[in-house]
Amino acid sequence: MTRTTTTPGGPGAGDRGDDGVPEKGRGYRKGPVLLRGKEIPAQTTDQRLLAAGGDSDWVHSDPWRVMRIQSEFVEGFGALAEVGPAVSVFGSARTRGDHPDYAQAVEVGRLLADAGYAVMTGGGPGIMEAANNGAHQAGGTSIGLGIELPFEQGMNEFVNLGVNFRYFFARKTMFVKYAQGFIVLPGGFGTFDELFEALTLVQTHKVTEFPIVLVGSDYWGGLLEWLRTAVADRGMIGRADLDLLHITDSPAEAVAYVIERGRALAASEREALDELVEDQQDAAGTAADGS
Ligand SMILES: CC(C)=CCNc1ncnc2c1ncn2[C@@H]1O[C@H](COP(=O)(O)O)[C@@H](O)[C@H]1O
Question: MF terms per GO, please (predicted)?
């Protein structure tokens, strides 16, 4: 719906008001900006917004993408804010239902749900499906944070709270923000990406430490050995950084570790904050006494 307007600029154009209706001497206000004479646009902002058809290149422009990215955060935060305690479970999208890793992940999901934790996965097939399956069997909250991929794939059937993301980075924020810990089963590049992002965030103190457990010593053992030797020996990481990872073959141990270590870390975080507040109060008291 486009209304006819007066031509921009030129004699008399400065007399057009905010709504495009001519009004002597008032000019044209565009938000906080006042336009007069040749600066007055041919159409009002509303006319441009409501006009049908026309060029649609703007849909592919970066400012428009920024709005979409923002909406992913808004939708994600809105959907997950009230979920309560949760643990993110990662692992291969390719693990088949008859593989022992699948059974391990089902058990992890089940035990987490039994302990009152929501299970958060990438919502896809393989290990993600297995962990959601376990949570579903135990009647727990089974979350899938899906990702739009070039090839067709849907949210697995065991998800009861699903959010679909267009952008990997927005989705990754949710895994960290809403989980008390990570449990990582055997996987490929996607799994490594999620694991190493978590390690980097904790190592650089960008987030408070949270427990990270690797399930499957035969699969992860080689990586840990390499981290201990090639990586730590050459000083690429500190020896203490190796303690950020806990490795086990037992789903029960993985779940117990995540819960207990998570509680211990949260308690020491609270203690450190209390001490900080006390120190600040003492400092403020000393300053007041001295004045
Ligand atoms: C059949 C197939 C490959 C489907 C891919 N469909 C996917 N759906 C959801 N998350 C995914 C998918 N592929 C990779 N990811 C992400 O990357 C990890 C698995 O990647 P990978 O298979 O280890 O490297 C998962 O924890 C998940 O967060």
Answer: cytokinin riboside 5'-monophosphate phosphoribohydrolase activity
